Amino acid sequence: MAAAGTCGTGTRSTGSMVAAASTNNVTSFQRRGPRASGADSGCSRLVSIAGTRPSVRNGQLLVSTGLPALDQLLGGGLAVGTVLLIEEDKYNIYSPLLFKYFLAEGIVSGHALLVASAKEDPADILQKLPAPLIDDSYKKECDEDVCSHKMEPDIKMKIAWRYQLLPKMEAGPVSSSRFGHYYDISKRIPQELIETSKWHGFFLPEKISSAFNVESCSLTPGYMKLLQFIQNIIYKEGFDGSNPQKKQKNILRIGIQNLGSPLWGDDICCTENCDTSHSLTKFLYILRGLLRTSLSACIITMPTHLIQNKAVIARVTNLSDTVVGLESFIGSEKETNPLYKDYHGLIHIRQIPRLNNLIYDISDVKDLAFKLKKKLFTIEVREFLCLSSQS
């Protein structure tokens, strides 16, 4: 379904993409007040979309990341029309989990998916998504883990890990109508859910050819092809906010894996002074313009630890709405540090968007760790508590 491989072809030209990005600096999906006539407002129509809810802060339409603890850290969820950038951990072990959670949540919620990768076939990625977890099973997992910590002997000075990010659960089967679900990473999503879902795959080796030439577009062939593919899906299937969908409104979840890696034809990770550093930033600029005028949300994983030019990293951060970094303990001194012995890494909330404003928020929660258990990926808050010993 990708567009033709020249700079001037496709549903819209690259120039029109840039124009859309420059004229749509803020997302338009914001709650409106009730009208005097008593008719339904625009918000009521948007909130009726399965798997969404309005933000309690600004009325922005939100979708779940597939990890309720992360939703809480981001202010309730991921805003429609925005980009979530995941800074990959060093060995790319844990970041794919967040990527899969996002896609699995889309399938369970009935959202449309667009999966793009230069490394793995999107069909294979979907087959490896985690299975929805029944709520009472999740509660049992959490209770057992908390009890194991309570069994430790009390000492005068002790590091306590509080489970503030684990909400109170209600027993019952998983439901597609609720906001945010839990997943069992030890099991695969049922095949019937994949078969009934609507998804689009972009596998770079199948879309690109050696004869593809886009020098005048200042974009690498892979980025250009992907932009055209995303644009076609948004406009042809009615996810464009200015062209309402004929059928019931739905959300398009876009997942892009390992963006900026050499597999995408980008040398930004290979040298400090690369010739195509502007290609990645221009791609993000145009992509964000497309998202701002559509019922879509995007997650991108990127190996930022391989980018040697810090100025490029700063520009990539500024062109993303939400930025979350994963720091794995593997191969570091923290791996043998007793303070972190029960955990696998740290999670850093580097940027939270302040939508429809010129500046962004910074998370107040700084000391976060994650743990990969048999079935669950959990995020926990670490605090130092002084406990008096009993005489």
Automatic annotation (TrEMBL):
Domain of life: Eukaryota
Keyword Cytoplasm applies: yes
GO BP of this protein: tRNA wobble uridine modification
Main location: cytoplasm
Keywords: Cytoplasm, Nucleus, tRNA processing
Subcellular locations according to the entry: Cytoplasm; Nucleus
GO cellular component, one term: cytoplasm
Biological pathway: tRNA modification; 5-methoxycarbonylmethyl-2-thiouridine-tRNA biosynthesis
Family affiliation: Belongs to the ELP4 family.
Functional description taken from the UniProt entry: Component of the elongator complex which is required for multiple tRNA modifications, including mcm5U (5-methoxycarbonylmethyl uridine), mcm5s2U (5-methoxycarbonylmethyl-2-thiouridine), and ncm5U (5-carbamoylmethyl uridine). The elongator complex catalyzes the formation of carboxymethyluridine in the wobble base at position 34 in tRNAs.
Subunit structure: Component of the elongator complex which consists of ELP1, ELP2, ELP3, ELP4, ELP5 and ELP6.
Name of the protein in question: Elongator complex protein 4
Organism of this sequence: Bos indicus x Bos taurus
